[in-house]
Amino acid sequence: MRLKDLSIIVTGSGRGIGRSIVLCCIDEGARVVINDINPSSIEEVRTSLQSKGGKVVVFVGDVSKRSEAQGLIEAAIRGFGRIDVLVNNAGISKTVPFLDITEEDWDEVIRINLKGVFNCAQFAARHMVQQGGGRIINISSRAYLGIEQMAHYAASKAGILGLTRCMAMELGQYNITVNSVAPGMIDTELTRSSISDAFMQDRIQKAPLHRIGSPKDIANAVVFLASSEASYITGEVLHVTGGFY
After folding, report:
1. For the domain bounded by 7-240, which CATH number is listed?
2. Nearest CA among 119, 233, 117, 240 for reference residue 178
3. pLDDT tens-digit profile of 156-167?
4. Strand-strand pairing, 31-36 and 134-139
5. Using N-to-C axis directions, what is the helix angle for 16-27 and 39-51, rounded to 10°?
6. CA–CA separation, 84 vs 31, rounded Å?
7. Are residues 168 and 178 in contact, defined by beta-carbon separation less than 8 angstroms?
8. I need a surface site. Which of 53, 84, 155, 186 has the fewest CB within 10 A?
9. Whole-angstrom Cα distance, residue 202 to residue 210?
10. Helix (H) or strand (E) holding 239
């Protein structure tokens, strides 16, 4: 029960890594605010969480839009009175050769993956300053180091790391820690829709642990950073890649 009674927001929690994060947070005693743009996905997650006896607030919305990101933060305050942890997980991925990336492709990925993080973090941090502290955890990706046919995605994830470090420097005085988790290859719907089975098998064979990660591997890292055990960690990026990179 490392997160007992903490109020935690997880964006993009309708499936994959986000869903696993909220399940782990509930198991650790947290109260959670779940968010997704897909109402049916988020309803399924709500049902799963409440079957565990979890306290849940639901907010359907697109966090890349300022008004909807603000609405998410306000829903958390109305529901639980405070925000102890914000997990910025919402994101998309597209595989497109660099020479073929359109302006629309670029803008969409940057808007959702990077602007969405900025939107939620800024609104949440303003409340955290007033309440005397909090935690912000941004989900980046190993892709920030570079990956073929995903230049826009890699750029958005690199941007998250720069934003994380700047926020950590500025918000530390308010007892707010800001860290990032950079997953490697994780077995999610998003991953399987972006890469071929042959590429995945090649990575599994080359990885020191001879497997790809599970969403729970990332959720466990998030729980640690959200807990009191990580109170003196800020501005860091935790790579969860199975040693491959």
Report:
1. 3.40.50.720
2. 233
3. 999 999 999 999
4. unpaired
5. 20
6. 10
7. yes
8. 53
9. 10
10. strand 237-240
Give dist(CA 154, CA 141) in Å, integer. 8
Instruction: Tell me the residue length of the chain.
Output: 245
| Identity at 9, one-letter amino acid code | I
Tokens 């942890």, residue?
85
Catalytic positions: 153
d(CA 159, CA 232): 23
Dig out the tokens for 196 from the structure.
């071929």
**Three-state SS letters, 37-69:** CCHHHHHHHHHHHHHCCCCEEEEECCCCCHHHH
Are 75 and 82 within 8 A, CB to CB?
Answer: no
3 state SS for 101-157? CCHHHHHHHHHHHHHHHHHHHHHHHHHHHHHCCEEEEEECCHHHHCCCCCHHHHHHH
